[in-house]
Amino acid sequence: MKSVYLMRSNGAYKIGVSKNPQKRLRNLRIGNCCIELIYESQKIYNAYSVERELHRKFSSYYLGHEWFAIEDEAKLIDDVKNFVNKHGVLNQTSSQKTETNADADELIKWIFEPTRRKIEQIGKEIEEINKENEFLANQLMELGWTQEEIDYLKKVAENFV
After folding, report:
1. Which residues pair with 16 in a beta bridge?
2. How far apart are CA 69 and CA 12, in angstroms?
3. What CA–CA distance (Å, rounded) separates 53 from 55?
4. Domain ranges in the chain?
5. What separation in angstroms does the CA of 99 have from each of 91, 110, 112, 123, 141?
6. Sign of the torsion angle spanned by Cα atoms 82, 84, 90, 95
7. CA 138 to CA 134: how far, in whole Å?
8. For residues 50 and 89, what is the distance between their CA atoms, to the nearest angstrom?
C-alpha cells in the first residue's frame, strides 16, 4: 500500500505516489531545497490508479514529470483529498483485488506499449522485405534463373546478415 502525495515548489505542484512520502521529500530536496510536502493520503491499495486519474484531471496544467502549474493551492489540496477519499481503496475485497490486478495489467501494458509498437513496426518491415524478395525472385526466374540458383543466392545472402 502506498500514499498519494502533493508537494509544492516555486509555485508548481507535484502529484505522486510513495510508500514513504517523507523519505521521498528528503530525496527530492537533494536537488531542490525549496520543495515542501503539503498533503499525504492514507495508505491505499490503488495509489497508482488514483495518481494516474489525478494526472488526467489536472492535465491542462501539466508542466512535465508529475509537475503541474495550478493557481489555487487550497482548491487543489481539497480536490486531491476529495478524489483520494472517494476513489482510494483502504481495504481490499476480492472484487477490488481484481480491480488492482486490472490496474497492474494496465500499468504493464503502458510500460511495454512502446516495445509492442516497435515489434509491430519491425513485423511490417519484415513483411515488406519478404514481398520485395519474392518480387526479386520472380524477376530472376523471368531472366532464366532456376529455383535452385535462387535458393543458393538466398543462403549466401543470409550469411551476410
Report:
1. 5
2. 5
3. 5
4. 3-91, 110-160
5. 13, 16, 20, 33, 59
6. positive
7. 6
8. 9
Q: Give the three cell numbers for residue 138.
A: 520472380
Q: What is the spatial distance between Cα 16 and Cα 14, in angstroms, rounded to a whole number? A: 6
What number of CA atoms fall less than 13 Å from residue 29's CA on the CB side? 11
pLDDT tens per residue, range 20-54? 999 999 999 998 889 999 999 999 989 999 999 99
Q: Which three cell numbers stand for residue 89?
A: 481503496
Residue-averaged pLDDT of the chain: 89
3-state secondary structure the chain: CEEEEEEEECCEEEEEEECCHHHHHHHHHCCCCCCEEEEECCCECCHHHHHHHHHHHCHHHEEECCEECCCCHHHHHHHHHHHHHHHCCCCCCHHHHHHHHHHHHHHHHHHHHHHHHHHHHHHHHHHHHHHHHHHHHHHHHHCCCCHHHHHHHHHHHHHHC
Q: Locate cell 480536490: which residue? A: 79
Q: What cell was used for 156?
A: 549466401
Quote the percentage of the chain above a pLDDT of 90. Answer: 68
